[in-house]
Amino acid sequence: MTDTYKFLLPENRIPRAWYNIAADLPAPPPPVLHPGTGKPIGPDDLAAIFPMELIKQEVATEREIEIPEPVREIYKLWRPAPLHRAVRLERALDTPARIFYKYEGVSPAGSHKPNTAVAQAFYNREAGIRKLATETGAGQWGSSLAFAGSIFGLEVKVYMVKVSYNQKPYRRALMETYGATCIPSPSMETAAGRAVLAQNPDSNGSLGIAISEAVEIAAQNPDTNYALGSVLNHVALHQTVIGLEAIEQMEMAGFWPDVVIGCAGGGSNFAGIAFPFLGLKLREGKDVRVLAVEPAACPTLTRGSYAYDFGDTAHLTPLMKMHTLGSSFMPPGFHAGGLRYHGMSPLVSHAKELGLIEAKAVHQNPCFEAGLLFARSEGIVPAPESTHAVRAAVDEALAAKAEGKPRTILFNLSGHGHFDMQAYTDYLSGKLEDRDYDAAALQASLDALPQVAAE
Amino acid sequence: MTDTYKFLLPENRIPRAWYNIAADLPAPPPPVLHPGTGKPIGPDDLAAIFPMELIKQEVATEREIEIPEPVREIYKLWRPAPLHRAVRLERALDTPARIFYKYEGVSPAGSHKPNTAVAQAFYNREAGIRKLATETGAGQWGSSLAFAGSIFGLEVKVYMVKVSYNQKPYRRALMETYGATCIPSPSMETAAGRAVLAQNPDSNGSLGIAISEAVEIAAQNPDTNYALGSVLNHVALHQTVIGLEAIEQMEMAGFWPDVVIGCAGGGSNFAGIAFPFLGLKLREGKDVRVLAVEPAACPTLTRGSYAYDFGDTAHLTPLMKMHTLGSSFMPPGFHAGGLRYHGMSPLVSHAKELGLIEAKAVHQNPCFEAGLLFARSEGIVPAPESTHAVRAAVDEALAAKAEGKPRTILFNLSGHGHFDMQAYTDYLSGKLEDRDYDAAALQASLDALPQVAAE
């Protein structure tokens, strides 16, 4: 038994290229469609809101896409991120399993989101863009883009879901500390926001509404682009630095994972850790299970339809084929705000359809139970989103114990929970409810999915 | 020019011994006195509240004190901590200075405090102690001891200054997540607390009062010890891992610092980064300035007397010779709660009297100005306490610019500000006041210092 439980790569091992799983998938992902024509969109359809380099990445088929040096220079502030073996958690569970976790909470914003925020800010600045508009739910993405904007000298405007804006003043303060402007959504600044407020002046907002507002602002202002923190192919691409580093670190540790686990909301942190391992499976036949974990209250991969849908509420975005609960679906309240999204990364969805990944949905109380156990054994308090991955890793370890056989488990600890401590307070005081989604409302939302001509 | 700006040591370079500056000082520090007899205290006087290993460290004269392996194993969760060169801050300041910072915010509790919390919890567990009592102001120490207690299976009870208890529910949540009990101080649980509440039922509390409560509980319960997060020699000792690592990392970077900077409240993070460099100066004649930075509203080193004083309000502690504002001194409100203490580490005070260290006091607005600049250039949002070190580093860099000569600056970034974002919101909205202490009240507090027979 070694006494090394933390696996650190030197700075020069930050990956020089992102990994594009599209190059290795046995079938290409379905095209993105123009909502007006129902035809596949071209680069020009997206040029009003994205820089061309990101549009190219969205449809790229080459396996490796070089990471620009200025992006790698900023990555060096916190990357390579550490990979730990959770020995104290293993002991607490009395399991023969080996549990490893990649820790992305070391970034300045406390989560994996800066991996793509920095890249997106860079490409936009290179394209001469001065301002970025985006949305945020729990605030992890908004604060990450605010950080990246401050580094590259871009103005950042964040439409923050109103309920989070009011409940999470510290997240807002973080964005403002980085120099960004934070606006509660729905707002009177956009037609999309005004339409919602006209119907419901007390609207608490949703990610779908906030996306509509940010896209509208970007579409109407030539000096402003839009940035999205998950779902899209280029976002998943940028996050693959997580898995690429983890592969090297697992080699240092001397173990190959039997299962790789990530929580999944829009799918980017899951894709980030899982796709590089899946690539080795596809190219070299390496055996590995990959498991996406989602909230039972917003079970996109396990209960959604695989269908074309809009990314937002106001239906300003193109149509993407993905697992979706329908853009009008409103999940019941739960604490992992970063997992409250009706859709799922088209690449993750496609991989699921191809049988390459497993998915499971879990309630929040068992997630916080696992998060608390993790905090008390490993010291790091996981973000509410990340507790979903912790829960699944603990369950895998308990299954190994029941079997009496070792198993190597790797999960992505996507962020720390220092901005989300109210969730732990609620859990400790027994106030957290495990609410299920409304099955009838889900069916209605699915019935309202856009009709798309024969694909 | 190299493109490496982060200097990481491998895990096996975590120091194997703490550095004890007492071995190298040209004169021994004055003894600690028994408040009843006025005579130097012996180990037995402290045995009711501290384990013998820590008492021995308090008076140790050997240069190196071995770090127990179980402590190093926990250190590995986040140590060695990174040392960065702040190239983007240098560019923002357009300075010829080279600015380096050691980042202690990577610990699970987000500050340097776990360096000693883990050691203290370990020695107490080894001594058969089941429970620890302590106090906390801003919450960094309380959450660090809670973390360490959870790792070593000790119950931790934290008396939290009431104003912070009410203003910082996230810090409290963090302690509770680690399994600790958090009690607003003054409380009805102790004679010290009841005495304060009898005089002033609305008392907001103070660190001095909270210390009295925790010491009282520890003194009265054989299974309970007391733990202090700063001031004492053994605490400064444990923090020297910061400077010991930094020396190696500055060698990797190829520069020797002209000045080493730390913020100073009780003095432990300052001692942690500064003492190992001072040791090289004392033993090998290496040239280095060391600079302690304190809040202008609580200017212990720059305006306090060097005199024997109590560590707490109820005068339960031994008398220590230190820079002090008097135990009845109440600073005006400011955000760096971790620097709101009337006294200063006796070792730091002694070194100051010996002319080995410089000190300066700064107001909070210029500190947050520097903290904001740091966040927007380097990405990390400093804790309010740490902004004092940032301010002084920026001032050194500006002085180098005015001189037109390079200068190498190293400061300790003792923690991140994710739990203290309200301070940034207040700064950004122009609400932060730079209040001065009440000079008459300070004089009265100094006049009331205990009379100690000829030393």
Automatic annotation (TrEMBL), chains A, B:
Pathway this chain belongs to: Amino-acid biosynthesis; L-tryptophan biosynthesis; L-tryptophan from chorismate: step 5/5
Self-association state and partner proteins as the record states: Tetramer of two alpha and two beta chains.
Role summary: The beta subunit is responsible for the synthesis of L-tryptophan from indole and L-serine.
SUPFAM superfamilies membership: Tryptophan synthase beta subunit-like PLP-dependent enzymes (SSF53686)
Keywords linked to the UniProt accession: Amino-acid biosynthesis, Aromatic amino acid biosynthesis, Lyase, Pyridoxal phosphate, Tryptophan biosynthesis
Organism name: Rhodoplanes tepidamans (Rhodoplanes cryptolactis)
Superkingdom of origin: Bacteria
Domain Tryptophan synthase beta chain-like PALP: 77-415
Name this protein carries in UniProt: Tryptophan synthase beta chain
UniProt similarity note: Belongs to the TrpB family.
Modification N6-(pyridoxal phosphate)lysine occurs at: K113
Pfam families in the record: PALP
Annotated catalysed reactions: (1S,2R)-1-C-(indol-3-yl)glycerol 3-phosphate + L-serine = D-glyceraldehyde 3-phosphate + L-tryptophan + H2O
Gene: trpB
